[in-house]
Amino acid sequence: MKIAVVGTGYVGLVTGVCLSEIGHHVTCVDIDEQKVEKMRQGISPIFEPGLEELMKNNIDRGLLTFTTNHKEAFSDAHAAYIAVGTPQREDGQADLRFIEQVAVDIAANLTNDIVVVTKSTVPVGTNERVKRILLKNLAGDYKVDVVSNPEFLREGSAVNDTFKGDRIVIGAENPEAADLIEAVNKPFGIPVFKTDIRSAEMIKYASNAFLATKISFINEIANLCEKLEANVEDVAAGMGMDDRIGNKFLNAGIGYGGSCFPKDTSALVQIASYVQHDFNLLKSVIEVNKVQQHMLIQKAKTRFGSLEGRRVALLGLAFKPNTDDMREAASIVLAQELVKEGAEVVAYDPISIENAKKLLPAQTVYVNSPEEALLAADFAFIVTEWKEVKALTPEDFKERMKLPIIFDGRNCYNLNEMEKHNIEYYSVGRKP
Ligand code: UGA
To answer: Where is the UDP-glucose/GDP-mannose dehydrogenase C-terminal domain (predicted)?
Structure first.
């Protein structure tokens, strides 16, 4: 089938590339000419394991093309996927301007009947709005259907998730449109769940809100464990053995970040408020997460009193490992607070430094290895559990730091090992 994908961010590019890999003719559309030119050469604008290889392969097979030209993308297409961003507005609402503009562009450039598929995370009711815009701007007497097909991929494992996802959700009014999108996805061999459009839109928000809730819940349990001298890792393992709870997403830490959970949880609270529903539970999840991001600072202040003049190794900057994405990363809050307190921040990340420079305070010093960051440091903050950071040994800390004092926000090291080497080690939900 011929498919157009609009927007080449994480969701759009991965979707387009993977659809070409299973044999469809895919044209990815973006307004950024320079970005399009790079992608034509098989260069991915994002760091995502396995993606460039598939891009190059399918460009060579003639199944994947990139363009800025709407006519070229939408004419003869059986389906057009909308995968543009829905940034968060100041009031927490999702900004739908890009989605609406794409709907106008698709409608104005059609040459045949088409199914328009929304991949972007959009508030309940948005697909109906998209349909109205499409109908209002139609270039001719064509039939358009709208399908909600939310995306569940994770950054850093997006390609793998697309091929091995747990479910494909298809929300449609017209069963024929749902069947067409089911057929498009058939080669993935992933279970399909069909429902109405509004429920499909809701599944996405509810899933992310639930996962965020799981994280805030275990973080609260971790904070309690510290006070009651229990071990949150054992608690999570014991809880997770119950199938109804499950053992995933129960890693306590410095809170969730990234481009999805913070944005989607705030958007759902907003969506609820429009129908006079006070989503108190989710508000608490968000609040707990904010407090959790400051946890390392609190612990350092309790230990040192003033942080003025202290040299701090900030290890890991991205919001999680295997991505260079710095959006809503806890490292931003931590670096800002440290600088405000008068500390000197020496930061390391294997791939996010360029992105970090745009977001961390200008005073931050960047180094190329975790060992270098530890040199003469008064204490270390472990922020992202990169393998390079986890590989540090007690000797690495002892040989380089003034005194080996670690505040670990990701529980990277073995408690007994740290104790054996006389390292002052504070982690999350485990006894100091
Ligand atoms: C998340 C969801 O996992 C995807 O299913 C969804 O498609 C995506 O958002 C989206 O809406 O597009 P992502 O933001 O890439 O994916 O990252 P996750 O792996 O879910 O991690 C999010 C944050 O939670 C990270 O900061 C991570 O460190 C934190 N986390 C995760 C924990 O603190 N503890 C855990 O047990 C798991």
So the answer is: 313-415
